[in-house]
Each structure stands twice: as C-alpha cells, then as structure tokens.
Amino acid sequence: MTREVRTVVFDTELKLEAYRFEGIMQKFPNHFHDYYVIGFIEQGKRYLQCGNEEYILNSGDVIIFNPQDPHSCEQVDGRTLDYRCINVQPEVMRHYVHEITGKLDLPRFTQAVLFQSELASPLHDLHQMLLDEQADFQKEELFLFLLEQLLREYSDADAPVPARELTTEIKMICQYIEDHYTENITLNQLTELTGLSKYHLLRLFTKQKGISPYRYLETIRINQAKRLLEQGVSPMEVALQAGFSDQSHFTNFFKKLIGLTPKQYLRIFKQQAEKKPSEVASS
C-alpha cells in the first residue's frame, strides 16, 4: 500500500506555513481558507473546481487561492498526489505587498491556475528552504521576488477581497454565522433573519458565495479551530470552543478540509522549540 507522508512547518521568521503532501489520495470537499494559498503539483493528476471554473491539474501547474475562494479537488486517474503549498495570512501578505508596491492594499489574484508555470521551480526552491528551516535571508529574498512577479502578472491590487457583490440578505447570513458559529444554528433561524424561503436562501447563498450555508459554517469553525490549535489549546477543548458537536466530528471534518488531524496540526506549533518539521506517515 502507498505510504502517505504529510509534512508541515511554520516559519517563524517569514510567518509562512508550508505543507507537503506525498502519496495521498484524499478528496477535499468544497471549502475556503481565510488566508492565501500558493502551491503546485509535483506529481499526479487532480480535478479542481474553484468558484465556477473547473480545471484538470498536472505536474508543474501552480495554483493560487485568495482568501474566501471556494474550492474542491480530487484525484481523477487513481494515482496518488504529491503537492506542496505555502499559506500566507492576510496581514503577512499586506506587509510584503507594502514592501514591494508601497501600498497597503490586499491583492486579489485573478487566475486560480497557472498551467505549466515557470514559477513552479522557484516556488519549489522556496518551499524546500522553508521545510529545511534555512536560517539565512535567501528564502526571504526568493519569496519577495516570487511575490513581486505574481503581483505584477496575475493580480489586481485594487480589487477588494473577496471581490463579489453580495445582497443584503446574504451579508446578514454571513455575519450571523460568523457571530454565532459556536451555537447550533438552524435553517429556520436564517430564514427568519432574512425573510427568504429555505430553498431560495440556500440557492441564493450558494450562488453568491460559491459554497452552501452549512459548509460556510463548518469552514468558519475550522478556521477558528486552527487559530486555537496554533495557540496550544487541546483538540478536545478546541472542539467545544469552535462549536463542533463532539470531538469525533471535529477530528473527521478537520482532516477532511485541512489534510491533517487536529493533533497533527497542534504538533507543528509544539515542536517549534525543537526546530523539527511535523511529519506524519501512514501506510
């Protein structure tokens, strides 16, 4: 059976998170992140849906997700996936964009996929430096040059993030979910809030946000869970604080969206003092 390896490090100097998945077959359901994702396919063929677009990814293709970009992906050829990505929090992105452009705007990258991009090579080198926890400034130099090219060729720095026009009702639902994600939210509550029928609410929300209301709620919970785990909170306590019904539900859904269990993700930050990557292998 294929051996899976999932390696994650957090670079405390650049404030970047680096993932490497080797030999995985996992399907990721429709979800979004509250940070930027810049990644590439090392080996494997992958079906990706981002927003209203569908793509077939192959080795050498670069992907870029803005915060709040809904996306899902799965294997299409029965073979395993090798994948690397760098996650950039908005405040970190803002800092580096200011370094490069002198502006404090958050960029919106306009292409989710760069097919057979020349940027895969420097992205690979940068990612390996992060995994190796290289101490000198070469990695920061490379990141700045890479980001400068992405900003120049593939972004609209003046567009807001997310760049979508939402109706008042959908804005109300999003705000309600973000304020009450720890509670047992019902569809009846959302219909009472907006005056929309259940079906119309579901259809309108999914059309405008690219993700269903319940998946939006689950993703908000997962994003909050990540922040708590990064602070060293135990997975059992995180499950309660993030609004999950039980720890089993939390663990299963966390791995489904993030690719790691909560314990594996927590270990990244517990091992920072030891300066060792968190690596999880399973046969």
Automatic annotation (TrEMBL):
Residues 171-268 form the HTH araC/xylS-type domain. InterPro entries: AraC-bd, AraC_XylS_family_regulators, Homeodomain-like_sf, HTH-like, HTH_AraC, RmlC-like_jellyroll, Tscrpt_reg_AraC-type_HTH. Keywords: DNA-binding, Transcription, Transcription regulation. It holds the Pfam family HTH_18. SUPFAM superfamilies: Homeodomain-like (SSF46689), Regulatory protein AraC (SSF51215). This is Arabinose operon regulatory protein. It comes from Paenibacillus auburnensis. The gene is araC_6.
